[in-house]
Specification:
By secondary structure, this protein is mainly α. It is built from 19 helices and no strands. The protein has a single domain, classed as Up-down Bundle (Growth Hormone, Chain: A). Helix 5 runs antiparallel to helix 6. It is found in: Cell membrane.
């Protein structure tokens, strides 16, 4: 049994809300950096004369870096602290934005995108870990969902910036300021939020659980007092003792701690990995990385394609707000099940719509009402994803693992997510040439499988203390 202080004595203070918001800004950069390529794809393809395969690599290369960053974020966070690791992420994202915007060739661009990807991968692990560790249990789902809200706001900001810059220049491949093409400015403007993020994280306290793991008990006690508003010394001491017991601080967490009886890993680690993989295998980032190109290819003007993409990102933001309102009331698992079912239906409808397409490549068209049908289905798909698998996976990854392995297990799960993201993103141009019906039908099949997986393997964590999580 946990010896944690009763939940009724914990409160979500304004301080913890501000701390969470500052940490979640890493998610904003995560969203911006990964989606900014959407508006630049066609311009980059034309600038460097890329094939479909090379385009897929150029778009998805950042995800390789993200997998690397996510893999090492856990050990870095456990050794140097959550806050220091966030600062590293901010620096990498600022440097990569500058390098990508000034790239002189495709390999140069790929290098800087990989550097940025490492920063994104670090941010993807450290933000949910930190937020979960400073949040009171009864609002942890809502605060954890701020990570996803920040991600979708970053996606929205990047797509809005892409549209504005392209329209201002008269096209993404047209020169804008200082003689540089608009697509270059799409990358360069990310330097500003990266610097803001780096400045803000200097003002947040270290995670109390990391402080306890390092034996800094008085500092941990002060942070717990502030973020949980625990003024009863007995309850505060009990919470501190609970964390100390759960962490088993006699050793530093290692990858070997994740070993278990099922194919070499603990069952809970496999659940985290598969949650991450399914979040990507339903194809969500095809919408956010290639949607401008996709809508342009089926008859919409470049300007209209950008506008549609921005509208889709607004839908994503709005439904994420709904998810935040529901997560601690409805629970994580029911929302995931609803999302899987809805995505299966809408992806299936998109597959049917594109089965009626005529032409190929840039001359692809959808006759009659199939164009609007595909557009509505795509946005409904985003609704179901944004309500469920978008925020819920990050909430679960931040809270589902036992304290002693949380950061390193989350790093493994997040690495799996980025690898899955890379596979989907890199293969989409080739799959699209084979036929969009096949591509969206494949994603629909994964949505169906994800429903079965959640039903059988995912446990509800609503209202549970982090110290109550088990292997």
């Amino acid at each position: 049994m946990s010896t944690a202080a009763p939940p009724i004595e914990q409160h979500a203070t304004m301080r913890v809300l501000l701390i969470t918001a500052a940490a979640a800004l890493g998610g904003f950069l995560f969203g911006y950096d990964t989606a900014v390529i959407n508006g630049a794809v066609d311009a980059i393809r034309g600038e460097f004369g890329l094939s479909a395969v090379a385009t897929g690599v150029a778009v998805s290369c950042a995800l390789v870096g993200s997998a690397i960053g996510a893999w090492y974020a856990g050990p870095l966070a456990d050794r140097f602290g959550r806050v220091s690791t966030m600062r590293v992420a901010a620096a990498l994202l600022a440097i990569s934005a500058l390098g990508a915007g000034l790239a002189f060739g495709v390999w140069d661009l790929i290098f800087w995108r990989i550097v940025g990807g490492i920063g994104v991968g670090v941010a993807s692990v450290i933000a949910p870990t930190y937020i979960a560790e400073v949040s009171p249990a009864h609002v942890r789902g809502r605060l954890g969902s701020m990570q996803q809200l920040a991600i979708v706001l970053g996606i929205f900001a990047s797509l809005l910036a892409d549209a504005w810059l392209a329209n201002t220049a008269g096209g993404a491949a047209q020169p804008l300021w200082l003689g540089m093409d608009a697509w270059r400015w799409m990358f360069l403007v990310a330097v500003v939020p990266a610097l803001i993020y780096g400045a803000l994280v200097f003002g947040v306290p270290e995670s109390p659980r990391h402080l306890v793991a390092k034996g800094r008990f008085e500092e941990a006690k002060r942070v717990l007092r502030d973020v949980l508003d625990l003024r009863n010394e007995g309850a505060l001491d009990a919470k501190l003792a609970d964390i100390r017991n759960s962490l088993r601080t006699e050793y530093v967490p290692r990858l070997s701690d994740l070993r278990g009886p099922r194919m070499g890993l603990l069952p809970i680690v496999w659940v985290g990995i598969l949650l991450s993989v399914f979040q990507q295998f339903v194809g969500i980032n095809v919408i956010f990385y290639y949607s401008s190109t996709l809508w342009h290819s089926v008859g919409f003007s470049e300007s209209d394609a950008f506008s549609i993409t921005v509208a889709t990102s607004i839908v994503n933001v709005l439904v994420t707000l709904v998810a935040i309102a529901l997560v601690d009331k409805v629970g994580r698992k029911p929302l995931l099940l609803v999302g899987s079912a809805g995505m299966a239906v809408t992806l299936g409808l998109m597959a049917v719509a594109f089965s009626h397409a005529t032409g190929t490549g840039a001359s692809l068209t959808l006759p009659g009402n199939w164009g609007p049908t595909a557009l509505v289905a795509a946005n409904l798909y985003v609704v179901f994803f944004g309500l469920s698998w978008g925020p819920m996976v990050w909430v679960l990854l931040g809270e589902m693992f036992p304290n002693r392995i949380r950061a390193i297990a989350l790093a493994v799960a997040a690495s799996a997510q980025w690898i899955a993201n890379f596979v989907i993103t890199a293969t989409f141009p080739s799959l699209a040439e084979m036929g969009l019906t096949f591509a969206y039908g494949l994603y629909a099949a994964f949505a169906v499988i994800s429903f079965v997986f959640v039903q059988r393997a995912v446990r509800e964590t609503k209202g549970m203390e982090l110290e109550a999580m088990t292997d």
